[in-house]
Amino acid sequence: MKLSNQTLPDLPAAVARPTYDRGALTPGIVHVGLGNFHRAHQAWYLHRLMQDGLAQDWAIIGAGVRAADARMREVLLAQDCLTTLIELAPAAMRAEVVGSMIDYLPVTEGNAPLIATLARPEIRIVALTITEGGYYVDPVSGGLNETHPDIQHDVATPDAPTTVFGAIVAALKARKAAGLGPFTVQSCDNLAGNGDITRNTVVSLARLTDPALADWIDGACSFPNSMVDCIVPATGPKEIGLARDLGIDDAAPVTHENYRQWVIEDDFCAGRPAWEKTGAILTDDVHSYETMKIRILNAGHQVIANVGELLSVETISGCMTHPAVLPFFRKVEREEIAPYVAPVPGMTPAAYVDLIAARFGNPQIHDTTRRVAFDGASRHPGFVLPILRDALASGGSVSGLALVEALWARMCAGTREDGSTIEPNDPQWPALMATSLAARDTPQIWLEQRHLYGDLADDPTFAEAFADWLRRLWNDGCAATISAYAKDPEISKTA
């Protein structure tokens, strides 16, 4: 049955669906980046409030700023912006149709429809899932990368920007001029201090063209930090087939694990939905939750994704049953990551490692190593290297973390151990591949990518461990190398 407003009453009885009048919903949120994660996470929390008769004036309008977003717009509008969520527990499956999104803006050069919508007074939150690498952060200074061509374009043509941040600045300029007041900009990406980073990007961009506007944005708008957590694989024929097996013709269904967490700093200048009524945690201490999740889950993904690619293990759950990868994962997590994570209410780092291991091992979640390894040039500096710096500062072992970096370097050579080709999997792939091949004979060349490693390249403890591991990977192979680390209690001290 083709998914639409009209067919909702006729869906199979086992499929939950909106009980609220979608025609009576009014918008309050524009969300930029309508990927699977948003539709399984933020849109679901709002949908659950609407099921309880709440938040009827907070419906979501979708938006995108990339040409590729136009395809998702076409697909979702054809099914009235409805999404089938399929929850995959290890031993069960259930489906629910989510209806909290009501429109998707045209994707155009210059972003005029987006700017005009953000300037409407009823829009009180602008939310983002644009990937960790989408915030134009200079990797050395930590500030706005003012030399990036997209940023230079937005400075030169602020009324027809190419970035979401340029659109936000243009809309806030219009709102300020019309006396409409500010809105909250809410990042939902996996970045430590995502709200602080978003504030810096928006305010810094505004300052390049209108310092007075920048001061107003900085003082009037809110940029709450948050932590988001739910494993959501990409959609392909298998996922579309699962929806069809349930009796639903959905061109863009979303599968997800049976776990969600959303921790939010309660800082919203123009109001917000009552997300805490449906399980979100509102707190002033987002950082502790965020650090636990980013270090143990997100860095944990990087621990296994590259070796999985190299060993031709297609999925993360497959990595968790691999006889060499699982012991490697557990040793790095327990000995070199968990020591640099503080507990949060109800959860210790050790217990969270066990939770993540179970979640990664869910055989029903077809989360590919390729997806998780994508954009390592953003994910390793964001997830792994901060832990490595803490370990070096405290005198702890960094052998396993150095091996994680060596595995990434080896993966970027572009071939698996069975001789098959790894297709480009990073926006910086050509440069990474060339550096990886050069580093085979001279490992230090990889660490001299200062835009990634900074002064870590100069630390002899890390550099020597990295070089040794990279040579072992090329000479002995991945399985033997990670097994040597996992099995020998002294190797973490002597590598």
Automatic annotation (TrEMBL):
<dbReference type="InterPro" id="IPR013118">
    <property type="entry name" value="Mannitol_DH_C"/>
</dbReference>
<dbReference type="GO" id="GO:0016616">
    <property type="term" value="F:oxidoreductase activity, acting on the CH-OH group of donors, NAD or NADP as acceptor"/>
</dbReference>
<dbReference type="InterPro" id="IPR036291">
    <property type="entry name" value="NAD(P)-bd_dom_sf"/>
</dbReference>
<dbReference type="InterPro" id="IPR013328">
    <property type="entry name" value="6PGD_dom2"/>
</dbReference>
<dbReference type="Pfam" id="PF08125">
    <property type="entry name" value="Mannitol_dh_C"/>
</dbReference>
<dbReference type="Pfam" id="PF01232">
    <property type="entry name" value="Mannitol_dh"/>
</dbReference>
<dbReference type="InterPro" id="IPR008927">
    <property type="entry name" value="6-PGluconate_DH-like_C_sf"/>
</dbReference>
<dbReference type="InterPro" id="IPR000669">
    <property type="entry name" value="Mannitol_DH"/>
</dbReference>
<dbReference type="InterPro" id="IPR013131">
    <property type="entry name" value="Mannitol_DH_N"/>
</dbReference>
<keyword id="KW-0560">Oxidoreductase</keyword>
<dbReference type="InterPro" id="IPR050988">
    <property type="entry name" value="Mannitol_DH/Oxidoreductase"/>
</dbReference>
<feature type="domain" description="Mannitol dehydrogenase N-terminal">
    <location>
        <begin position="28"/>
        <end position="277"/>
    </location>
</feature>
<protein>
    <submittedName>
        <fullName>Mannitol 2-dehydrogenase</fullName>
    </submittedName>
</protein>
<feature type="domain" description="Mannitol dehydrogenase C-terminal">
    <location>
        <begin position="285"/>
        <end position="474"/>
    </location>
</feature>
